[in-house]
Design brief:
The chain is α+β, with helices and mostly antiparallel strands. The protein has helices at about 15-20, 35-45, 65-70, 75-80, 110-125, 140-145, 170-175; strands at about 5, 5-10, 55-60, 85-95, 95-100, 105, 130-135, 155-160.
Length: about 200
Amino acid sequence: MTHSNNRQSEYPVEPLFLDRWSPRAFDGKSMPKEHLLTILDAAHWAPSASNLQPWRFVYAHKGSADWEKFVGLLMEGNQVWAKNASVLLFIISRSYSVSREGEKKPAPTHSFDAGAAWFSLAVQAHMLGYHAHGMAGIFKDKIVETLNVPEGYVVEAAVAIGTMTDKSTLPDNLAEREVPSNRLPLADVAFEGSFTGKAD
Ligand SMILES: Cc1cc2nc3c(=O)[nH]c(=O)nc-3n(C[C@H](O)[C@H](O)[C@H](O)COP(=O)(O)O)c2cc1C
């Protein structure tokens, strides 16, 4: 087992998997562009079906002309804390592939692949001393319109990246939840031979 960050795994996993988590208390400091591009570079080394690399990232730095617009694309419950991040970005994925003949075909794993990119992003951010927090509480239609997302591209999620600060900076209801979360027992999610888990 590994014990780290108030978390305990059942087997000896790398501490990194326990250390990465999603806080909401960010200090609002600016992030050097080099750091953000390092994080996105890592993300785009994720594996994808047929190496289609369907992920796209649209980002804004806090303090930039785009910042308020990006904050406005998050639902209120996320705006409250994510406005203090250093960077906000949207993960968008291309839902089709294009053959050599120029024919478009559905790419059924585009969201799965974009998820791999999200996790790579979160790990690289962590290794640079930042925290990344994914968000599904976003206005997808408004994002498509505001950010000129082309047809056939899907808005997957938003991510706030920043430097963690004290939870006392959060409203009380969020400060109470500002702790690394636990996981289901491994036996509830990993089955040998057939799906023997509860279909709840
Ligand atoms: C795709 C995705 C969407 C999420 N949406 C939100 C959200 O809208 N608001 C929020 O506060 N947290 C959101 N989270 C954070 C999760 O609640 C968090 O990752 C989960 O509780 C596990 O905690 P940990 O990341 O600290 O290990 C999201 C995470 C992911 C991966």
